[in-house]
Amino acid sequence: MSAQLPDAVQKAIERDHRAVRPLPPLWRRTLAVVIVALALLAAVLVTHKLRPDLPILSFWIGWGATAIELLAGILLVGLALRESVPGQALTTSTIVLAVAAAMAANGLVALATWIGTHQAPMGLHGGSMCLRNELVISIPAVLLTVFLVLRALPLRPCIVGLLGGAGAGLVADGINHLLCPVSDLRHVLVWHTGAIFVLMAIGWLAGRVWELSRSV
């Protein structure tokens, strides 16, 4: 015979008991991020002046590079959404490999653009504007990722935040690739890639703050 719960405990359970909406499958949650990324790209194309050398660049250095970074960013956000579901945690090696591959893609895009444009060295010119642009562009993707992640109650919020920040940063950098006229490798690696690392750090810190708030 099972023991009867005390009345106070039973009432507390009844007060807290409520229906929970099932979590949508991973592909649907990731699709929401795809839609936001494409909407951001469309908004930038309509409202901003594209880099002046875009018409003379090859397809892969121009639009292809943007597509590669968008895809890499969306895949990282998808991994963050999977990691956020208890029981579906990724292995450490998978996380390291995914982030390293995405950042390698970012570096190859920077290198190919620098070589392909034959642009005169410009150093760190205009960097603060690029950093600001990437942080602003990433905001919608970051907010959507945070909303989807918190619905799933992640067990390792720091890892989820890092993956989500990296993904949003790559999406923003892919879009900014169509805007920034500077191809100098120093500029791109410091300000563009630097923005991705800033977003990774912000994501990790946000996860840490959320983790500490849950333990209080």
What key phrases describe this protein's structure?
single chain, 216 residues, mainly alpha, 7 helices, 0% strand
Question: What's the arrangement of secondary structure elements?
Answer:
Layout (H helix, E strand, L loop, with lengths): L6 H10 L9 H22 L12 H24 L8 H26 L9 H26 L4 H20 L8 H31 L1
Question: What this model shows, in words?
Answer:
- The protein is mostly helical and 216 residues long.
- It has one domain (24-215).
- 74% of the residues lie in helices and 0% in strands.
- It is built from 7 helices and no strands.
- The protein is elongated, with a radius of gyration of 21 Å.
- The two termini are 36 Å apart.
- The model has no long low-confidence stretch (mean pLDDT 88).
